[in-house]
Amino acid sequence: MLEQSIHTSFKISNLMALAVKAELTVDERDILDQWLAANPDNRDLYHRILNEELRKGDLELFNSFDSSAALAKMSKRIHTTLPVKKRLSVFAYMAAAVVLLMLTSILYFTQFKNDVVEDFANNQINTVSTPKGVQRKITLPDGTKVWLSAASTLSYPSSFDKIPYRAVKLMGQAYFEVSKNAVQHFVVKTRLQEIEVVGTTFKVESYANDPEIKTSLYSGALKIKRAHKSDIVLSPGQQSLVSDFAARIIKLDSQDLAMNATGQEGEEDIRFKNESFPQVMQKISRWYDVDIKYPADIKTGSISGAISIGGTLPELTGILDALYPDLDITLNNRTITVTR
Fold first, then answer.
1. Do residues 129 and 111 lie in contact, with contact meaning Cβ atoms separated by under 8 Å?
2. How many CB atoms lie within 10 A of CB 49?
3. Contact at 8 Å (CB) between 205 and 173?
4. What is the 3-state secondary structure (H, E, C) of the chain?
5. Strand 291-293 vs strand 335-339: parallel, antiparallel, or unpaired?
6. Which of 39, 131, 202, 227 has the least C-beta neighbours within 10 A?
7. What pLDDT is attached to residue 40?
């Protein structure tokens, strides 16, 4: 019993770590969802881990707590007041709780804090990752502000001093408000391109499974460099779309330009612009942290519009029913299933 409880704690803590990194498989997500559904306390703990302010308070309390002394004191009380069978049950619970708390502490330091993950040219590189459904604001060493979207990763040096330019790496989506520096350009590196700016506001969408990288410029100047291809220069109000095979520039419409005002406070809506069913489902899965299952041969027309990020899952299901009236859409825990 004791061994099984500790094993379960290790397993759940590992799944939570994977959830933070947005690396859960569908089967792993099912296991975590079952654990979350089993007890409200499990859900409370999970949401505390995702909440930065609560997490900091928990860690301060944890670091000030003498767990060895408390465990010894509790152990003495159990031995003197409980029968043997009951003692084993309580010990199993205590051990599992202590293990989960310890691993939650480790999870904080390894997943949520701006941990050092590499050292390059004597300049430490920090990496920040957000899980699905979570956004985060980051201020870089030069004062540049970054709003990192859900399921995204940003890497940046601990200092921009004594280097020719300010470079960061992005996987996912982020909105940038770059501090002006005429001497050091600011560079965002993604999988297919490098974006060079001086001082500007722009947004980059560069998820690994998206067919194109979208770069939207709201103010300032921006140049996109690609290997063995001509540079792309954007003017405010333009968006570039870069794939493995082609690149094009389009004009941002009024709704896109309005995103400049809301981007500084984080995304409020999931926006679609002539997007296919798989693209819509992918965005919803990313922002609502849900698994979506549907047949690969489902065919629907492209849609444009927006869905609020702050809604509940039943509300989301109702919206999808309205968007796709010819499809049967059901919700079970955190899994949405779509059938004809």
1. yes
2. 22
3. yes
4. CHHHHHHHHHHHHHHHHHHHCCCCCHHHHHHHHHHHHHCHHHHHHHHHHHCHHHHHHHHHHHHHCCHHHHHHHHHHHHHHHCCHHHHHHHHHHHHHHHHHHHHHHHHHHHHHCCEEEEEECCEEEEEEECCCCCCEEEECCCCCEEEECCCCEEEEECCCCCCCCEEEEEEEEEEEECCCCCCCCEEEECCCCEEEECCCEEEEEECCCCCCEEEEEEECCEEEEECCEEEEEECCCEEEEECCCCEEEEECCHHHHHHHHHHCCCCCEEEEEEECHHHHHHHHHHHHCCEEECCCCCCCCCEEEEEECCCCHHHHHHHHHHHCCCCEEEEECCEEEEEC
5. parallel
6. 227
7. 72
Structure tokens at 313: 């899952």
Q: What is the pLDDT of residue 50?
A: 58
Which residue is listed with tokens 């419409």?
253
CA atoms within 13 A on the CB side of 290: 26
304, two tokens: 């444009």
CA dist 263 and 7 (Å) reads 42
Q: Which pLDDT score, from 0 to 100, does residue 317 have?
A: 93
- Record the tokens describing residue 177, joined without a space: 């408000």
Give the whole-angstrom CA distance, residue 226 versus residue 193: 5
pLDDT of residue 117: 38
Q: So what's the pLDDT on residue 201?
A: 92
Q: What pLDDT is attached to residue 25?
A: 64
User: In this structure, what token pair is assigned to residue 132?
Assistant: 């699905």
Residue 145's pLDDT is what? 95
pLDDT in the model for residue 272: 87
